[in-house]
Amino acid sequence: MTGLIELRIEGPLAFVTLSNPGRLNAMTRGMWRELREAFERLARMPALRCVIVGGEGGAFCAGGDISEYPSFRFDVARLRAFHEDEVWAALAAMLACELPLVARIEGACMGAGLEIASCCDIRLSAASAKFGAPIAKLGFPMAPREAALVQAAIGDALARDMLLAAGIHGAQRLLEAGFLLSLLPDADLEAAVLAHARRIATLAPTAARLNKATFAALRQAGAQQAVAPLVASAYDYADSAEHREGIAAFLDKRTPGF
C-alpha cells in the first residue's frame, strides 16, 4: 500500500504529515482512514497545544489517488461509503479536534487537499502554491458535505469557479479571499509556520478549546445541516457514463469526451 499519514509529537506540538511519494501526496483510502485515526488519537492527548498539518516533499496534497478510483467509484453503495465513512469521517475528526490546527501549504493544494486545509483554523502558504478542485474534468461532483466545507472556507465565488469551471488559482487569490492568513516566500514557509504554532502553544489552552467549541457550534448551525438531505441521493451518479469516461480519460492520459 502506498501513502500514509505520519504523526509526530514534539513537546506541545503535533505534526500531521500527508505522505504519498511520487503522487504529490494524493490521498488513498488508507490515508483517509489513517487521518481519522491520527486526529482521534490527538483528541486523547490533553497536553498538546497545537497541530501542524502539512505535506511531504514540497506539496500539500494533489487530491485523491485516482489510480484507486475504478475499484470502487462506479458502485453507488461503495461510493457513498467512501465519501461518508472514510473521507467525511476523517474531515469530521479534524473539525472536532479541540486543538488549534495550522496548515503548512506548499505546491499543489487540490481537491482532497483543499478539503483538508479547509478544516484547519489558520492557513499559511508558500507564495508558489496552487489551489483548485478540478474534478469536473473527471466527470463527478464534490460530495455535498465536502462542498459545503470548502465553500464556507474559500467563499462562494471561488468555490463555484473551482467546481464548475475547474479553475486553478494562485495563493495570492486565496489570500484575497480570506482563505489564507499570509503568504511566505517558499524558503521561509516552514520556519514561519513553526513560529506561529509555537506562539499558539504559549497561550491559554482552555481559551483555545473554548474558542474552537464556539466555531464548531456556528459551523454546525450553518451549511452542514442544509446539505444533509442531499446525501441520500448524492451518489446515484456512480455508474453514469460521464463518471466512467472522466476517470478513464485521466488514467489513459487523454481528453475526456463528455
Summarize the structure.
The protein has a single domain (4-201), classed as 2-enoyl-CoA Hydratase, Chain A, domain 1, CATH 3.90.226. The chain contains ten helices and nine strands.
Q: What would your notes on this structure say?
A:
With 258 residues, this protein is of the alpha/beta class. It has one domain: 2-enoyl-CoA Hydratase, Chain A, domain 1, CATH 3.90.226.10. Helix content is 44%, strand content 16%. It is built from 10 helices and 9 strands. Strand 1 and strand 2 (13-19) form a beta hairpin. The radius of gyration is 18 Å and the shape is globular.
Task: Spell out the key features of this protein.
single chain, 258 residues, alpha/beta, 2-enoyl-CoA Hydratase, Chain A, domain 1, 3-stranded mixed sheet, globular
